[in-house]
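Backbone shape codes
____________________
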Amino acid sequence: MSGRTEGRIRRFDPSRRNPSPRPASRSAVRILLVEDTTADAVLLEQRLADASHAEYRVARSERLADALVRVATEPFDIVLLDLGLPDSVGLETLHRMHERSEEVSVPIVVITGHSDEHLALDAVKAGAQDYLFKGEFESRMLVRTIQSAIERHRMLMELQEARQREHYLATHDALTGLPNRYLFADRLGQSLASARRYGQRVAILFLDLDRFKTINDTLGHSVGDQLLHAVARRLSACLRASDSAARIGGDEFVVLLPGIRQSVDAAKVARNVERALSRPYRMGHREFYITTSIGIALYPEDGENAEDLVKNADTAMYSAKDSGGDNCHFYSRQMNASSLKLLALENDLRRAIELDQLRLHFQPQIDGRTGTIVGAEALVRWLHPDLGLVSPVEFIPLAEETGLIGQIGEWVLLEACRQTRHWQDAGLEHAAVSVNVSPRQFWHTDFHGRVDWVLRETRLPPSSLTLEITESCLMRDVDSTVKCLGSIKDLGVAVSLDDFGTGYSSLSVLRRLPLDVLKMDRSFTREAIEDRDGSMVAAAIIGLANSLGLSVLAEGVETEAQREFLIEHACPGMQGFLFSPPLPAPDFGTLLNEGRIELPKPNPED
């Protein structure tokens, strides 16, 4: 028999106590008669009117299109459907009505002529409950057909609901409503198969509530059950739609995190779960707290099959519990240390600004021919209370990944301009500063307005500020970039193209951008004296900048040979450790007061 006779399986909702289709026993049975022949429709209605033990209310549609609308918007108990209509003929008529009527759980009885008995039988196989022949609408047979069709449909729906409930109970935890270990194992297997195919990573979190037995023993199992139910709700609220939580027994839960990018992502979810579950619980007049121990295992590092992953996550959970609970551990000790350190570093970084832990250092930019200081690049440093001075190599990528780079970048811009104005007020009138701009800052909807506000707030002349923007950032949307840079230039602020040569800009694009300075990446400065190809590339970059009328500044100058190469190729602007490392503001102020840097003396042996 065709699969259509079973009807569409509706999603089982365990909150519905006795889900069922519309009841058949009513004071009036509501019928939608889909029939375009008036004589047949009148005869059928007369036969129904003759029925003495039931009342029937008949609504009629002459076309299928109208009937499809009415069955979806009006309450009917059954549809009597002629298979030969002006806008649809044969089994296609049934298929279209069956698809629509399934949505509202209404049975169908088809109407055909004697010559189409085979069609009527095919219709029953395709989902109709029964059939009637035109001209044979004898009252008792008609009523019996309608009532039987409604009753069979009701029984079929109840059977489907029972099967769905049976399946639900077999795959879900009865107390919390979460998937049980069997459904979780199935979902984990599917996630691992997908991860193998597409080269993805999967994480398993194994949770155990700390001291739950004490609550059960002292407050009773009823309170313990309420707590487990509350934990399940909070746990589910922490997860993405693609994640899955399950209760696998007692006070143990597992969480499946498919498609994670790195271990720290799993640690973040674990921390969110810890925070959510540690909030106070109120059961009646009682309020109490509970913590959780979490173990984390990752595919493929900690196991390539479901059994190993769950076992290793369980092992990591016991490690967390043995360390005092209220903690999470990775299965791998090395990964546990590095990931949790990174997570702790992120949490500390979020508070670094408000706790005044960020510092600015300034590296001089000079004329390499004379040593005269022409400006400085402001570079952010983080003075951690426990770790000391944290390298930008550690926290800048973290800030970019977490989105904190925008907030940090705004702080750097404001403080760099404020410090530069302070030097100018102290008599160092030629003090100027370059500030790096992150893509998140640059593409902010009011970046121009933010720069304007900072200049007015600090009273820094716009000509004393240069904004350094990376090549890859500017290439994202050239038209919008040109417009934004134009508004910045209108303020009187200079724009530098940072790390030039590491992106994919073309000469035609460079000509369109309103730039002032082209900053050659340190890799080209280094390679300029290493071999012939490196020197040719560096010389070409300098020549390109000069031909476009741009100032050029070379980063990463560390040797006298590099300085001499740059001077020889008409690149006097330089920055690097050959002249000075980045300095704290007081030290750079002293250097700025001197006005120049003593250049290295040539080695007589060179």
Summary: Residues 3-16+24-171 form a domain with the Rossmann fold fold (CATH 3.40.50.2300). The two ends are 95 Å apart (CA to CA).
